[in-house]
Design a protein that fits this description.
By secondary structure, the protein is an alpha/beta fold. Helices cover about 45% and strands about 20% of the residues.
Length: about 325
């Protein structure tokens, strides 16, 4: 392994820069030339590739987003586009590729591996929706961003004795809403894995009011529905003023937490080690608190197992 490249793909996540830094510095430490690919698979196809050195990744560990930038690429979904990407890699003399992203990015890495390119994936997504790994880079930071926001929302919600419906990201995975709901003391957590019944929700609100609750905080995962619609429904039924807050892309930004910086650093080092050992088509993950690597095909086929125990805890603590 003489030359490797690194790219970020899909949605950005806090900690991606820490992972890039780890990949670059581990490669240089091992005497390997390392190159950066700008704008994900789109930049790969277009040859947006440049040499990186230790200075290239100085003072980035604390920065959110990705210095390599990211973009969607329809062309890469075609066979012709992927063959072009392989040709570009060979023109630049690149022997291995590290892909930082989510399941869509990993699917691309898998296809390149099938075409003879040594690839390894690092999970970078705030959604935490990759079943093979306990945590993905960016989830912890996004979670703390949500907690900070709902702490502030609760203050004004309590002052006005209103219901606050806060919509968070996560696609079809409710982890951000579930973890933030427990950590932020939400009265109700609504997630795709469980859904909700509007009558049952409103009954809970009425019961809380009878017990003297001054406000209600509802955490809503985006995969269930919209916060504006839910807030309107709840207000019509309960007669209690209800406001919707959609946190949106604020959850993707910000300086990564200590946990995400550590996770990204460990995973970046592990990814380069996998390539040095001559293995391809692998993904880095965390299991039982330890960094592991798995076959990319097997990892992508693992069904996501919902944490019923954690959901039950959220119900108990919100009573």
């Amino acid at each position: 392994m003489k030359t490797i490249a690194v790219l970020t793909s899909g949605g950005d996540a806090p900690g991606m820069n820490a992972a890039i830094r780890a990949v670059v510095r581990m490669a240089i430490f091992k005497g390997i030339r390392v190159m950066g690919v700008q704008r994900g698979y789109s930049g790969l196809i277009n040859g947006e590739i440049f040499d990186m050195d230790r200075h290239s990744v100085s003072d980035i560990i604390h920065r959110g987003g990705t210095i390599l930038r990211t973009a969607r690429c329809e062309e890469f979904k075609t066979e012709a586009g992927r063959k072009k990407a392989v040709n570009v890699l060979r023109v630049f003399g690149i022997d291995g590729l590290v892909v930082i992203g989510g399941d869509g990015s990993f699917a691309g890495a898998q296809l390149l591996s099938d075409l003879g390119i040594a690839t390894v994936g690092i999970p970078g997504t705030i959604d935490n929706d990759l079943p093979y790994s306990e945590y993905s880079i960016g989830f912890d930071t996004a979670l703390n961003t949500v907690l900070d926001a709902i702490n502030k929302i609760r203050d004004t919600s309590s002052s006005h004795e209103r219901i606050s419906v806060v919509e968070v990201m996560g696609r079809n995975c409710g982890d951000i809403a579930l973890y933030a709901g427990i950590g932020g003391g939400a009265e109700e957590v609504i997630i795709p894995e469980k859904g909700y019944e509007i009558d049952s929700l409103c009954k809970t609100i009425f019961e809380g009011k009878l017990r003297g609750k001054m406000h209600n905080l509802i955490l809503l995962a985006e995969g269930v529905g919209g916060a504006n619609e839910l807030a309107k429904q709840v207000e019509e039924i309960t007669g209690i003023e209800s406001r919707a807050t959609i946190l949106g892309h604020i959850q993707r930004g910000g300086s990564p937490s200590a946990f995400d910086r550590m996770l990204a650093s460990k995973m970046g080092v592990a990814a380069v080690q996998v390539l040095i050992e001559g293995r391809s088509g692998r993904v880095i993950g965390m299991k039982n608190g330890k960094i592991v690597d798995e076959d990319i095909n097997e990892a992508l086929e693992i069904p996501r197992k919902f944490n019923e125990e954690l959901y039950e805890i959220s119900k108990i603590l919100s009573y």
